[in-house]
Design a protein that fits this description.
Elements (H helix, E strand, L loop, with lengths): L12 H11 L4 E5 L2 E4 H17 L7 E5 L4 H12 L3 E4 L6 H8 L8 E2 L10 E2 L5 H10 L12 E7 L7 E6 H5 L15 E4 L6 H11 L4 E4 L7 H11 L3 E5 H10 L9 E5 L5 H10 L5 E5 L9 E4 L15 E2 L4 E5 L12 E6 L6 E2 L3 H7 L2 E4 L2 E14 L5 E6 L3 E4 L2 E4 H9 L4 E10 L5 E10 L7 H9 L10 E4 L13 H6 L3
Parallel strand pairs: 1-10, 3-4, 3-5, 5-6, 9-10, 11-12, 12-13, 25-26
Antiparallel strand pairs: 1-2, 7-8, 8-18, 13-14, 14-15, 16-17, 17-20, 19-20, 20-21, 22-23, 24-25
InterPro entries: AA_adenyl_dom (IPR010071), AMP-bd_C (IPR025110), AMP-bd_C_sf (IPR045851), AMP-binding_CS (IPR020845), AMP-dep_synth/lig_dom (IPR000873), ANL_N_sf (IPR042099)
Protein name: Amino acid adenylation domain-containing protein
């Protein structure tokens, strides 16, 4: 078991933001386009919106879906929802109507806030785009008194893909968001720090970028683009002075390949969401040996991050790839064998998270909540946990190493194969840029073969025969893929991760 040491003080999200607004009201909180918004303006605008939400019928404990585009007003609206004692669920107005409809049907006739003209998407209350300074002025004349919320009260809902095709709502309490930010928390957050907000608003890493700074006195630049491409990263560092950045692994690899110097000027970089590429990490560290590069690992159900690891030159020799690291503040990690007993150091087990980061459960799904969020006896004490489905091993130093997904284990010709192990081996081949191992099934659902879908480093060549030989030296014969499919790029989901289901459906 790995227990955290120092942890930030427990706070609700809006109370933490308001605390800084009271002590440093003129500090920059948000930048979006030409708008520069200080903490007092942000909290006053949020209070005005909270009053409007209450007038519309929003009550403490409600879940308020937001169909408002990314921007400063969305941030103030989210903060206003929290001030009203409710929780928000941010939905992308560009999503297909059936997806939005399936989410709204999971809620009990909610107040749905959107832009005028969005009524076909289920919007019940329309909000015109208004500068926050104008909203803040109206709030000062008739100040809304924020509702007191408990640490265990829901603050936000993140919708993840469900196995049935219906999105699963993950209920996140205030304590889960604030647990890793503040004194004793993660590096790169607080007064003087600036982070770009790029992650999709429906994803938990949006909260990492946004509330990580706003609950500690830092600032956020809202970026209109969906992905932080190298040229935009350069301009944000140069023109805005951003210093703390989160990138998905795939996007990090892209920037390293196309414009490594775009990272010049950063002070802290977090990378995660997928298994790290040792080659790209090594290239980055050679160019920026003193810039902290953190591997961030964890599911939305243990909000934002579960472990972090500062990557270094020696990581390229780790047998399982770049380590997942040690628990973030406010998180405990244990490993369980299949029989439920603790796995000792050096033995593979399922990664289980405990502590204030654990979500309240899944929206309207008590069965799945009981399965994935059991109460476990840990050192004689009953504790609520989240079973991640990820496999890991603690080394002799107590550092966690990721060993793939339980549900990515397949059986082919009588052999159990972990697809993550194939990807880890392929990632060590110098010519491979990105890759994914997928199981292809026949009409009866039986695994017919494993395909490795991959892209190559620009300007190099590697035939399937050569790749097969390279993997044959790294993997047992039964685990070497039967098909090799080279693409110009791998399909991505909205959050930047590889779209594995799309690759599984791919036929060549």
């Amino acid at each position: 078991m790995n227990e955290p040491t120092n942890t930030p003080p427990p706070r609700t999200v809006h109370a933490a933001v308001m605390e800084h607004a009271a002590t440093a009201p003129r500090d920059l909180a948000l930048a979006h386009g030409d708008e520069r918004i200080d903490y007092r303006t942000l909290t006053d605008a949020a209070a005005a919106l909270a009053g409007q939400l209450t007038a519309w019928g929003v009550r403490p404990g409600d879940i308020v879906p937001l169909l408002v585009p990314r921007g400063a007003q969305l941030v103030a609206l989210q903060l206003g929802v929290l001030m009203s004692g409710a929780a928000y669920a941010t939905l992308d107005p560009r999503w297909p109507a059936p997806r939005i409809g399936s989410i709204l049907r999971q809620l009990d006739r909610p107040v749905v806030v959107g832009r005028p003209g969005g009524e076909p998407l289920g919007v019940t209350r329309a909000l015109d785009p208004v500068p926050l300074a104008a909203l803040a002025g109206s709030a000062r004349a008739d100040r809304f008194e924020p509702v007191h919320a408990a640490l265990d009260d829901p603050a936000m809902v993140f919708f993840t893909s469900g196995s049935t095709g219906v999105p699963k709502g993950v209920l996140i309490p205030h304590r889960a968001v604030t647990r890793m930010f503040g004194p004793g928390g993660l590096d790169g957050f607080g007064p003087g720090h600036l982070t770009p907000q790029v992650a999709p608003a429906a994803w938990d890493m949006y909260a990492f970028e946004l509330w990580g700074q706003l609950t500690t006195g830092g600032a956020v630049v809202v970026v209109d683009e969906n992905h932080l491409m190298p040229s935009r990263l350069r301009s944000l560092v140069t023109d805005e002075g951003i210093d703390t950045v989160w990138l998905t692994t795939s996007l990090f690899n892209l920037v390293v390949d196309e414009d490594l110097d775009a990272f010049e000027g950063l002070k802290t970089l977090y990378v995660g969401g997928e298994k790290q590429s040792p080659r790209h990490v090594e290239m980055f560290l050679r160019r920026f040996p003193g810039l902290p590069l953190w591997n961030g690992f964890g599911p939305a159900e243990n909000c934002m991050l579960t472990t972090v690891h500062r990557m270094g030159p020696d990581d390229r020799n780790a047998p399982a790839g770049i380590p997942a690291g040690v628990p973030v503040p406010g998180t405990t990690v244990i490993l369980l064998r299949e029989d439920g007993s603790p796995a000792p150091r050096g033995e593979r087990g399922e990664i289980v998270a405990l502590g204030p980061g654990v979500a309240l459960g899944y929206l309207n799904d008590d069965i799945l909540t009981r399965e994935k969020f059991p109460e476990l006896d840990v050192a004689g004490e009953p504790r609520r946990a989240y079973r991640t489905g990820d496999m890991g091993v603690f080394d002799d130093r107590g550092v966690l190493h990721f060993h793939g997904r339980r549900d990515r284990q397949i059986k082919l010709s009588g052999n159990r194969i972990e697809l993550g192990d194939i990807e880890a081996a392929a990632s060590t081949v110098p010519q491979i840029r990105t890759c994914a191992a997928v199981a292809r099934t026949d009409e009866g659902g039986t695994v017919a073969h494993i395909a490795l879908v991959y892209t190559l480093v620009e300007g190099v060549e590697l035939t399937p025969r050569e790749l097969r030989a390279a993997l044959g030296a790294l993997l047992p014969a039964y685990a070497v893929p039967g098909r090799f499919e080279q693409l110009d790029d791998l399909p991505r989901r909205e959050n930047g991760k590889v779209d594995l289901p799309a690759l599984e459906r791919r036929r060549v």
